[in-house]
Amino acid sequence: MSIAQDWFEQHRPRFQQAQVACVERNCWSPFPETPGQYPDAPQAQAAGLAAFQAHLGGEQARRFALDQPGITGVLGAEVSPYTCKPLGIAYPHSDVDTLFDAAGNAIDRWSQATVQERIGVLMEVVEVLFRDHLFELTQAVMHTAGQSFNMAYAGSGVNALDRAIEALVFAHQAQRAVTPHARWERQFGPSQIALDKTYRLVPRGVAVCFACASFPTWNAWPSMMASLATGNAVIVKPHPATILPMAISVRVFREVIAAAGFDPNLVTMALDTVEQPIGKVLVQHPKTAIVDFTGSVAFGQWVERNAYPALAFTETAGCNTVVLESADDLDAALRSLATTMCMFSAQMCTSPQNIYIPADGVRTPGGRVPLDEVGRRLAEAVAALGAAPKKA
After folding, report:
1. Cα–Cα separations (whole angstroms), residue 200 to 9, 16, 109, 227, 234
2. Does the pTM exceed 0.85?
3. Local confidence band at 392 (pLDDT 50, 70, 90 cut-offs)
4. What is the SS3 assignment for 27-61?
């Protein structure tokens, strides 16, 4: 039995639970929702903080160890929103054409592996990220994207891993829908015609995954999993402000893939700067087969118009509307709305931007509350959040 198949058997119970959850659409996660519930939480959190700090450089940038093809130099100018100081990390910058060539060469043997073997390798990636790197990644997200500790642990940690497993379930389901062999028989007059058919899953090629600045792992992990599980290679393009979470992720993917005996160049990282972006180069590269973009509306629309013949998947900002027509308890409703408006500094795609209120006010059990008063009480609810530093 191969290492990859062995990993599939090891993770089969968890994967089967995920399959059931995807069918029944119920709430399920194999991971603890809060940091305090993590096994040996104090020790794990301390180890994660130490691992994060080991990445940091001072006046002399520290090189991030990532051995991938085509390295021509280093890039990295991340600044912690908490300390307002540079992280001082220098990441390998690789030639784009070399990355595509290496990714393409890695696909052949990977695509010949069984679906279970690919799923096994990627379920092991999930396990290693959770077991060995979760709090390191939590700190990395905090000091790049600016998320709180709890948000980084949940939204960019365990919940993103949930989404990664979900992507594997649906990738497995789609591939299992294709039978490997079939015998087709039919009577044509006096003759009995029989055809033995063999079907083979063929990957599309190299996928480019754009990770966004505010939630770098949230969409990137499931995107990477979906592409890899179906036999493709992935080039990850982090946002220049949030490279570290994706650099750690790419390194874990590469290490696990190599340990299973496959070419680690199935996963590589392409870097750029705000001043010299390479997004359009990656999207329009002749070897790009899939583009998975999360980020701004403007560039997302450009991707949708220009990615062809590559398949393009985009997620950009949401337009979220709240209609406040009536409330049994207006103050409670406004407190809830204030929290939703301010959560993660309104950077989440679910943050409301537009609030509609009837011109004659909001209906309550005590009568209509005028528009101006509703606005004043909402402003007070927002101010109250900032008045409690620990909660803010």
Report:
1. 23, 24, 14, 17, 21
2. yes
3. low
4. CCCCCCCCHHHCCCHHHHHHHHHHHHHHHCCCCCC
Q: For residues 178 and 201, is the Cβ–Cβ distance under 8 A?
A: yes
The CA distance from 346 to 360, in Å, is 28
**Lookup: tokens for 358:** 């009837």
CA distances from 73 to 69, 93, 136, 244 (A): 12, 5, 25, 17
Copy the structure tokens of residue 168. 């594997």
Q: In whole angstroms, what is the distance from residue 37 CA to residue 74 CA?
A: 38
Map residue 270 onto helix, strand or coil. Answer: coil
Pair of tokens at residue 95: 């030639």
Peptide bond into 389 cis (omega under 30): no
Q: How far apart are the first and last CA of the chain?
A: 53
pLDDT tens, position by position, 142-192: 999 999 999 999 999 999 999 999 999 999 999 999 999 999 999 988 999
Q: Report residue 206: phi and psi, to 5°.
A: -95, 125
Looking from the CA of 2 toward its CB, the CA atoms found within 13 Å total 17
Q: What residue ranges define each of the domains in the chain, with the CATH number in brackets? A: 3-177+200-315 (3.40.605.10), 321-387 (no CATH)
Backbone phi, then psi, for 62, in 5-degree steps? -95, 135
Amino acid at 212: C
Could you count the other beta carbons within 10 Å of the beta carbon of residue 322?
14
The C-alpha atoms of residue 30 and residue 120 are separated, in whole angstroms, by 16
CA pair distance 54, 91, nearest whole angstrom = 14
CA triplet 285, 290, 292: central angle to 5 degrees?
A: 105
Query: Interhelix angle for 159-176 vs 115-145, to 10°?
Result: 150
Q: Which of 273, 275, 30 is nearest to 130 (CA)?
A: 30
Place of tokens 């039978």: 179
Q: What is the pLDDT of residues 51-75, one digit of tens each?
A: 999 999 988 899 999 999 999 999 9
Q: Token pair for residue 58?
A: 């001072």
Residue in the block written with tokens 């008045």: 387
Give rounded-to-5 percent helix, strand, coil for the chain: 50, 20, 30
Task: Give the bridge partners for 237, in sequence order.
Answer: 210
